[in-house]
Amino acid sequence: MKKKVLALLMASVMMFGLAACGGGNGDAATEGDQAATEANGDLPTVGVLIYKYDDTYISTVRNSLQTALEGKAIVEMQDGKGDQATQNDQLDVMISKGVDVLCVNMVDAKAASGVVEKASAAGIPTIFFNREPDTDVIKSYEKACFIGTNAIDAGKMQGDIIKDLMDAHPEYDLNQDGKVQYVMFQGEPDNPEAIARTQYSVEQAEANGLQMEQVGETQVCNWDTETAQKAMEAMLAANQGKIEMVIANNDGMAIGCVAALSNINYNTGAEGASFIPVIGVDATDAAKDAISKGQMSATVLQDGDAMGKAIAAAAMNAASGAGFLDGTEYTYDDTGVAVRIPYAPYTGQ
Questions:
Q1: Which residues contact 206 (CB under 8 A, 6 or more apart)?
Q2: What CA dihedral angle connects 259, 291, 184 and 81, to 10 degrees?
Q3: Is the pLDDT of residue 40 over 80?
Q4: Which residues are CB-neighbours of 245 under 8 A, at least 6 positions away?
Q5: Rounded CA gap, 113 and 119, in Å?
Q6: pTM
Q7: For 247-260, what is each residue's pLDDT tens digit?
């Protein structure tokens, strides 16, 4: 019995000692937490949902956004990996964490009503960007807006570029029939931006007086370089000598087409090499490099850096309780809820 009592006394002494040591570490941890709180306590938390990290253009936007918010906000960013269900789960986590503002690059713009419903219920201001939901969905929540581009403008600029290229290079009309035989590479089948670029690039070229004739079916390649390369290889195998122009909804797919052409010794940049003009959208570094090397004709600049800065400015305003555009240089278009970042043609000149 005495041994048990002695053992209990020794255990009590040890526990007391451990508690004392633990108290010292706890104080240090508390001091660290307090320091972190003092450093970040006044900073708002911006939740950012990205449709897919490995999209080249979107990488430019998110890097710009992070840089613009550095030291001004705590940024919680998630990769939706191209899956709407995954993004829905990430949205729920963001809301549960109580972020001050949401910036959402939808995987599927048609699913935006669900985002609005949840954000509205939580009272969290929400900025949709790049992938545009229906205007009525945005307007259904007074604390929502959209920051992006006007996809019609990108298509029209491509159409203008096509006209300029054909005027400057009549040799591009390989069969000299006065028509432009083209292949179209579309981003996604139901994406409004992809649809607009596809439609208006051709319509604008025709409005400029060109006769456009599509070769084969529209190649839907989900904005992906490798997918576009394989599709272009198949198109070349079936239609070599019949394709006079490649029109792509983005530079990723355009670069894939350039790679396919280089495999048959086209568009190598070498003097006298066979060449088919390829036009994209985004003005990525890879596209600019291909244009400078004479492997690609042109692209349309979609200013990712400018978009990231605009999102950051609106997010900081919303987090402080101000209007999205208060005190900024930005204005809404005719919808009253959308900010448009302008496109510009890029030919490397």
A1: 159, 212
A2: 70
A3: no
A4: 162, 165, 172, 180, 181, 182, 183, 276, 277, 279
A5: 10
A6: 0.83
A7: 999 999 999 999 99
Alpha-carbon gap, residue 297 to 248, rounded angstroms? 12
User: What are the residues whose beta carbons fall under 8 Å from the beta carbon of 177, sequence distance 6 or more?
Assistant: none
Sign of the alpha-carbon dihedral angle for 291, 296, 302, 308: negative
CA distance 307 to 105: 12
How does 152-190 read in b/e, with b if 16+ C-beta sit within 10 Å?
Answer: bbbbbbbbbbbbebbeeeeebbeeeeeebbbbbbbbbee
> How is residue 338 annotated by DSSP?
E
Name the token pair of 288: 């600019």
Backbone angles phi, psi at 281, to 5 degrees: -145, 135
The reported pLDDT for the residue numbered 13 is 34
For 273, residues 6+ apart whose C-beta sits below 8 A from its C-beta are 265, 266, 267
Q: DSSP assignment, residue 274?
A: B
Hey, how many other C-beta atoms are within 10 angstroms of the C-beta on 207?
A: 13
> 147 and 168 in contact (C-beta within 8 Å)?
no
